[in-house]
């Protein structure tokens, strides 16, 4: 009998019920912690300051979900500033001749402004 390969073991662990159960438990703990934080902040800040009614844990979770739907992004958070490839891009730009830079600009202007489709473009574009 042959031993299972490491990649086969990874695949099985990826689909295992234990992993799903761990994910569900961690998600519930995270939701409970986030709801508790929202509830405590609401009850400590807004009840005395604005005279609103105190929240329970389920109302806090609902408020958290509502804010996420209305104001939050469901993808990864956006970064500001140059990305990790900015240095390489700057070095590549600096090493181009003025003719290569003009071709590069023309290529991206046509591509971003609804210019010719990719199949119509000439292969000599950068």
Which stretches are poorly predicted, pLDDT < 50 over at least 5 residues?
Answer: none
Overall average residue pLDDT: 80
Specify Rg, calculated over alpha carbons: 27 Å
Query: What is the share of helical residues?
Result: 55-70%
Q: Helix and strand succession?
A: HHHHH
Number of separate strands? 0
Give the structural class: mainly alpha
Number of domains: 2
Helix count, DSSP H or I runs of 4 or more residues: 5
Strand content: under 5%
**What overall form do the CA principal axes indicate?**
elongated
Biggest sheet statistics: none
- The N- and C-terminal alpha carbons lie at a distance of 55 Å
Characterise the protein shown here:
- With 126 residues, the protein is an all-alpha fold.
- It folds into two domains: 6-71; 98-126.
- The chain has five helices and no strands.
- It has helices at 6-14, 17-50, 57-71, 86-95, 98-112.
- Helix 2 packs across helix 3 (57-71).
């Amino acid at each position: 009998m042959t031993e299972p390969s490491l990649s086969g073991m990874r695949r099985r662990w990826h689909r295992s019920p234990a992993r799903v159960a761990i994910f569900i438990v961690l998600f519930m703990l995270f939701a409970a912690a986030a709801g508790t934080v929202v509830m405590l902040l609401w009850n400590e800040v807004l009840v005395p300051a604005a005279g609103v009614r105190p929240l329970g844990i389920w109302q806090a979770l609902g408020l958290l979900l509502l804010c996420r739907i209305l104001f939050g992004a469901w993808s990864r958070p956006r970064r500001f500033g140059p990305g990790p490839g900015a240095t390489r891009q700057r070095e590549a730009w600096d090493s181009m001749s003025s003719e290569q830079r003009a071709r590069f600009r023309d290529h991206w202007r046509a591509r971003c402004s609804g210019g010719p489709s990719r199949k119509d473009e000439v292969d000599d574009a950068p």
